[in-house]
Design goal:
The chain is mainly alpha-helical. It is built from two helices and two strands, in the order H-E-E-H. It is flat, with a radius of gyration of 12 Å. The N and C termini lie close together (10 Å).
Amino acid sequence: LEPDCEKFAYALLDTENVGVMPGGSFGDAARGHIRIALTQPEPQLLEATRRLRRFVSSYRRAAA
């Protein structure tokens, strides 16, 4: 979807208020990926998942 994991992570935060870690923060092998912490209560994780899904759908359309 986006080879620049930092760009993706910041756009997700700005657009949907969902914080993830850019994979590049964990070394070259994780570049191009994001990390998601599953340490919140389930209702918050479900809402974050909805927001992530909505964001990815619009991000994909914009990139096409």
